[in-house]
Every structure is written in structure tokens, then in C-alpha cells.
Amino acid sequence: MLRKNLGTIASTVAVFNRLAKRGRPGVAVARAVLSRWDPTLSAVPESPPETTLLQILRDAGLGRVVPQLVVTDASGNVVARVDLGLPDLRVTVEYDSDQEHTNPITIANDNDRRNAVISAGWFPVVARRRDLRDEGRHLIAAIRALRSQPA
User: Residues near 92 by Cβ (< 8 Å), separated by ≥ 6?
Assistant: First the structure.
């Protein structure tokens, strides 16, 4: 809804509060979804897998999770916009789908962008579909291990 500019959180909450009645189908699910929304986010994930990844990272307690984070270098130049960022850890997380990230040109572009992110002092991490299936256990462990290494 937000990605397609079909409404706002405020308008959705207003409609929900007006229509939500005990026993009405979908009220519990809608209440759960709205309770997980972070109103401080200035951007939203751009796909359902990115949304799932956002929730996994937030639930892991790794600090702030920022969708569509803009990474800049020491001079303030933009080097990349990444799917999700963990600014407190200086970690970026990109969701690489099977459809969009498997041809040689895309892989080369992804590698160039990740190298630029590294040069800017961030640690890029890649998530794939399997990382969403296991509630991110392997991904979260990799992020924690990465950040526990001496600088």
C-alpha cells in the first residue's frame, strides 16, 4: 500500500479504528500488522521479501534497521542505496532475488556497488530466499560474527 502510494499509515489506522469490530474477519491480523509498523521510517521496503527481512533484522535486536539506506563516502558522495541498513553496526543488507541477481551483468554491477560500500566503511551482507525461510538464523549469526571481529 505504501510502496504504491495508495494510502498512509495514518489513513489506514483511521479506517481500521472506524471499522474494527470484535469478531470481524481480519481484525486480529490487521491489528498485528499495524502494531509492527515503525512510524519513524522515512522509506519503506520495496518488495515483500525486503519487508520480511526488515522484520527479521528488527526482531534480532541488532539496533536500528533503515530501509532504502543511502550510503555515502567520507566526502558525502552517495555510493549506493541499499535495501536495508543497520547504521549502528555499519552493516548493509541487500536482498538478492533469483530473478534479478543471477545474470553476469547484474552480478558485476552488484559486486561494484558492494566494493564501493566497503570502501565507504560499511560491511555489506547478502540475503537470499533461504535466509527468509529459517527466520534469518544464519544471516543474523553472520552479522553478529562479522561485527564481533576486531577492526
Answer: 69, 71, 80, 82, 83, 84, 85, 86, 117, 122, 123, 124, 125
- DSSP bridge pairs for 94: 126
| DSSP symbol at 6 | S
Q: Which residue has the cell 521496503?
A: 45
Closest CA to 54 of 33, 30, 71: 33
Which residue is listed with cell 552517495?
Answer: 78
Contacts of 141 (CB under 8 A, 6+ apart): none
Q: Are 88 and 56 in contact (CB under 8 A)?
A: no
Q: What is the pTM of this model?
A: 0.70
Give 68-82 pLDDT, tens digit per residue: 999 999 999 999 999
- The answer to whether the beta carbons of residues 122 and 91 sit under 8 Å apart is yes
Helix (H) or strand (E) holding 111: helix 104-119
Contacts 24+ apart (CB under 8 A), 101-107: none
